[in-house]
Amino acid sequence: MVSRLVTTCRSSFIISIVFTTITAFVIAEICSALPLSGSIYIWAASSAGPKYARFFGFIVACWSTSAWITFAAINSQSTANYVASQLAVWEVNFPGGIGNDNVKWRAMIWAMSEFFLFVPAAMNYLPPKAYAGVFRFSLAIIFIDFLLCVIWLPIAAHNAYGLRSAKDVFTETYNGTGAPPGWNWILSLFFTAGIFTGFDASGHVAEETKHANVTAGRAIILSVTATGVLSFAATILFLFCTPNLNIVFALNAPQPFVQIYALALGKRASIFMTVISVISTVMSTTMVILSGSRLIFAIARDGVLPFSRWIGTVSADGQPRNAVTVMFAFGAFLLCTILPSQVAFTSLLSAGAVTTIAAYGLIALLRLTMTPHAFRASRFYLGRLARPFYVVSVLWNALVFAVMISPFFFPVNAQSFNFACVIFGFVTMFAVGSWWITPADKWLRQEQILQAMHSAEGHPDAVGPVVAVNVSVTEKR
């Protein structure tokens, strides 16, 4: 599906970079004021002000938790797709055929996905000192992958079947969705805006970061900038290097790029590129679990989750490993939906992004309407740009939200229906129900929010709702 949308993404990519960067500045502003574990739900609660803090805190906490667990499951299946695509490259006669309509194929993808979820989860049990090495290794692999695609792939594609013309790359549009031309173009935002989702990750490990009020906010902005520039360059490059679109859409592998590697580089060389891609996605999933587990830990230690005492317990070296276990368990459960229906699992791709996009937009809306003059002590305070940035962020994320819950193929039937709206509605109702039945003195008490807001205004004697908890996870690295 993404390969069908990417051919219409040139202009929408630039638009996505601009407006997502504005959203990143809005999030960085409050992240700098409140650099706490759990981050995003604390940001939403504080943005709403004391009166409505608990309600919006519950909403965003549930949205974000479901999103990060979903991201881990989706990344794991993406890794499995890279490996399984080699069967199509080598024309292996798989029983029942290669495709999601074959239950045996889905069973194999499920088993591989579970394995590729277990590996990054296990890496999160490493000692804290090993994390620096993991980060550096991840970055090195990503840059090796990028350099090979920039240098090796264009040369090989030119020699194998020739590069596409600039006219084709920059002007050709393909409508594989069946939607009207205007909405077909807007649907390309699924790809161009979706790749930025999760840029708030650095905020989730803020308590484990030195000088977090500067570092975490800066990381949010730099992550969006780097993602935008490098992804746009890679997209243009791939458009030049892909063969004729009719050939691309006829490829039957779950990850078409593996077959494109085989066409351009040769079958044996495609194995090397597949290994690099697999390592990259495994390391990406490791970072997803690292960030998501901190969010789950922060919610649990405030006492709102079942088995909170156990989930919120840290190890001897200060790591929330029980939260990692919870994230792995729920991710493994979500992967089981591959077995009965690939349609339901595919909808999780949108659902994970939908809840995160909704959280970004909601925080901007709350800042605009509830606390427009708060958090002046932030190192990224927007000043006169605040209101325009809030308005732009609200409108932009509303548009992306609409894209994420839209059907991607028309006309709509049971196979093309996007269940993301159903999943989003269920998660939201669960959040509202949790807020309703949880006593006000159990989680995010009003005095905690007041303390957090007082601290965010730069008062050194204030203690935030999370910092006050005596846990060793705040050990700086």
Could you give a quick summary of the protein structure above?
The protein is built from 20 helices and no strands. With 477 residues, it is mostly helical.
Tell me the layout of helices and strands:
Layout: H1 2-5, H2 10-33, H3 40-48, H4 53-89, H5 103-123, H6 131-160, H7 166-171, H8 181-187, H9 189-192, H10 201-204, H11 212-241, H12 245-250, H13 256-265, H14 267-301, H15 308-311, H16 321-335, H17 342-369, H18 386-405, H19 420-437, H20 446-456
Helix pairs in contact: 2-11, 2-18, 3-4, 3-17, 4-5, 4-13, 4-14, 4-16, 4-17, 4-19, 5-14, 5-16, 6-11, 6-13, 6-14, 13-14, 14-16, 17-18, 17-19
Protein name: Amino acid transporter
Organism: Artomyces pyxidatus
Fourth-tier CATH superfamily name:
Amino acid/polyamine transporter I
Distance between the termini: 41 Å
The percent of residues in helical segments reads 55-70%
Which CATH architecture? Up-down Bundle
Helical/strand content category: mainly alpha
The SSE order reads: HHHHHHHHHHHHHHHHHHHH
CATH topology: Amino acid/polyamine transporter I
Whole-number total of structural domains: 1
Q: On the 0-100 scale, what is the average pLDDT? A: 85
Low-confidence stretches: 1-7, 460-477
**Judging from the principal axes of the Cα atoms, what is the shape?**
globular
CATH class annotation? Mainly Alpha
Query: Please, how many helices?
Result: 20
Which percent range describes the beta-strand content? under 5%
Over all CA atoms, what is the radius of gyration? 22 Å
Largest sheet: none
